[in-house]
Every structure is written in structure tokens, then in C-alpha cells.
Amino acid sequence: MTNSTQELHLQSLSELASTLHSKKASAVEVAQHFLKRIQADKTGAFLDVNAEASLAQARSSDARLAAGTGGCLEGVPIAHKDVFVTRDFVTTAGSKILTNYRSPFDATVVQKLAHGVNSQSGAGMVTLGKLNCDEFAMGSGNENSAFHPVRNPWDATRVPGGSSGGSAAAVAARLTPAATGTDTGGSIRQPASFCGITGIKPTYGRASRYGMIAYASSLDQAGPMARSAEDCALLLSAMCGPDLDRDSTSLDVATENFSAKLTQSVKGLRIGIPKEFFGDGLAADVRNAIDAALKTLESQGAQLVPISLPRTELSIPVYYIIAPAEASSNLSRFDGVKFGHRAKDYTDLVSMYKQTRTEGFGEEVKRRIMTGAYVLSHGYFDAYYLQAQKIRRMIADDFQQAFALCDVIAGPVAPSVAWTLGHNASDPLADYLADIFTLPASLAGLPGMSVPVGFGDALMPVGVQLIGNYLQEATLLNVAHQFQLATDFHMQSPQRGAAL
Ligand code: GLN
Predict the structure, then answer these.
(1) Is residue 326 in contact with ligand 1, taking CB distance under 6 Å?
(2) pLDDT tens column, 269-285
(3) Fewer beta carbons below 10 Å: N end or C end of the chain?
(4) The pTM is what?
């Protein structure tokens, strides 16, 4: 256990909680420690920091700790992806169209992690700020942020992954012990993999979407990103739970004490290995790291079972029809009337809409809106959107067949390690193709996780993806935890990174 003040950033969430409960450090001191690190940050992970607001929250935490009324993570810092709306911090979703936008309320997930919802008290965490992301969470490298890209703490010339790139980089660089992310088609798992941290996207509907700026509503899901499965378990228990009045797709399923379920040996666990995840497209360095991890799990008593997810390749066209279709509808609310930016020069209402959106949205967002409007348009709807919905159902069915043979599925998160900044700049399709292994679970609404399993080319981190059946987050977290008991990949920090 590391307890000196200099080492607060190396403590796990439960260590920080006990440091605070035993008054070895106050919440204000802990917040100041991290705020100082954030000030010296060179990764570009943060979009908004408001030390005054963070310290005010920390003072409330100290009062609750003194009174013995604190939540389970009272005073422990966290930072939120900039798609969660927050009262104390600006929320932009990484877009110019929301420059300086301030929400009148906190997202449910933010409330639950902090002060609580309605009369139910929250975890008591202190918010350090808002984290950079791809504009409206559209991207795989965080290069689509309208403000600035994020650099990978392991190598500042490389991307941290996307769209929750700020979240992954901030945790990896020890600027915050934990972060929230959102995952529509891989945006928690892929940046977690690229930055060597642990992240889990729960079953669709487990965490409330209320106050999460919508990208593709039938896919968007919030989840925690932290160093270990143990930390993710604590966070996920605090984040999940029904929010039926405010999110119509919220599942009416009570949250679980995921931390209490990290005790099961993996002996006899059947791990499905989809052959489609290990084809020619997978880089050898990633494959080697995954193979080694599977061997470790085998040596712990798990059994590897060959399975097939035959429509894996189709998940790319299916996702890149459905997600833009939903985005084109969701983003119609940004028209210069109610939120954020409004163009200065216009002649009438329609020209105001046009000018505002032309100025406010970035290139990739415009591309998705155009694609979405096209696949939903009269004459093309049946050929594209309807067809994609049918195949989406088949992809979900394929998983159910696979889960008849295995308890969890394991494979790569991404086909390669993090690429260099600008590498895909002239070819947006290259980014889309790199999502191939994360999209299937997203389309099926299944929980998925990334767990650090080693290092590939250029010593960049590699993560293994674990996919579970609906509501099997506890199983995923437990498998990850058992693996982390036997390995220390999740404990390594990117000290050699030029960004640090
Ligand atoms: N890369 C995918 C996209 O651009 C996934 C993004 C996400 O999960 N938010 O849509």
C-alpha cells in the first residue's frame, strides 16, 4: 500500500478510499495532488478544469467524511468524458457547436458517482474536470476533437484511441485514478486497450443515458475506465441501476456489488475463441500478446473452446449505417436555437440553421450526418437501413449460439496497437475498419471489456477483449481480476512516454 502524499496517484480506488477514511489525507489534499498533475499534463486529455469547483466538492466530501456519512468512494477523484453534462464544468462533446455550453443539470451517471440521485446517496467522488473526446464521440483516435487531439502517454506521437481518448490517456498518465467513458461501437474498450488500462462497457441499458449527449441512442452506453478490474468493479456498481423515469431504455435491473463477486476461480470456465477474430487482419504483435494471455488463463484452469461469429465482417457496414442514421436524427437538435453556437451572419431562419451547422460541426460529424440522412431517405431506407437492422438481429443471434458453447468470449480489441497521429487522416474508412472487433458486441448490446495483456510493436499496450452474455458483467470483471492477480500489465505506467 502506497500512502505518502507524493504517491497518491499510484493508489488504487480502494486504497484512496481508505487513505481518505483513515484521514491520512483529506479530500482537498487528494484533489490538489491530482490538479497539480493535470496542470503539468502534456497529453491534452482535459478540455475543462475548474479547480474551484473541484475543491468545493472536496470540502463537502471532507465534511461528510468527518461526519461519518460519506459514500463508498467519498472524496476519491474522477473525471468525466465531455459527453456527460455537468453543472460545474463546461460540456462540449468535443464540438465547437457547444463551445462554452453549461448544462443546468448533471447526468445521472455523474450524479450517482458524486452526490446521488433523488434521496439515494451517491458514491461521493470529486470531479476533477472534463475529458477530451472525438466530436460527439465519433472516431477511433481522438483526432476528431474540435479542440485538440489527445496524445498517447506511452508515445506522444501516437493516438490514445477513441472516442474516449482523453479518459484513457488521463488514467494511463495518472492524472486521475478513474474516468467515465462512453462506448457506442468500441469507445471504452479500444482506447483502454491502446493506453494499457482496464475498461468495461456494460450491457446496453445498465447505466442511464440521461444527460449523456446522444450519438447513436440504440448503441450508446456509459462505463468506467480505470487501472484494474477491481477499480472498474467499484465504479460500475456505483454507476449502474434503473433510471426508468428519465431514460426509456434503462433496464429495470438493480445494480450489483461487483466487487464482492471477484472471488471465483476461472477453473472450468469455457472461453470461446471466435475464429473470425484471429484472421489475416490481425497484426502479429497483437496476436502474440493475446495468445500469451489465453495461455495464462488456461494455466489458471480455463478451457478454450473454438467458436464462430460468422457475421463479424458485416458488423462494419451495419454499424456505419445504423450509427450515422441515429446520429443524423440526434444531432438535428443543434440548430443554433436552443444550444451553443449560433452563426452571426444569416438572412433568414433556414440560412441561420445552415450557417450555424456549417460553422459548428467538424468534417467527420458532417460526413456522418450526410450518410445518415442518405440511408434514411425515401428510396434508400429499405436497401440500407432496414437491411442493416435485419443483419443486426442476426449478429445478436450468432452470439446466443456461441454462448451455448462458452461462458465468455475472448479476442483482440483492435487489429493493431495505437497508430501514429495523422496516419488515417486522408482515409476515414481506415478508422472504421479498425472497429471490426468491438462493433459486434455493441450491435448486440452485450457487455464487453478490455484488459491489458502486454505490449506489442514499439512497446505499445495491447488489450484482450472479453465479451459476456447479457448482464454478465460480474463474470467479465471476475475473469479480468483473476488474470490481473497473476499478471502486472495493468500496473505498469508509461514513464518512458515523451508526453510525460
Ligand atoms: N469508432 C466508432 C465510431 O466512430 C465508435 C465510437 C464510439 O464508440 N463512440 O463510431
Answers:
(1) no
(2) 999 999 999 999 999 99
(3) N
(4) 0.97
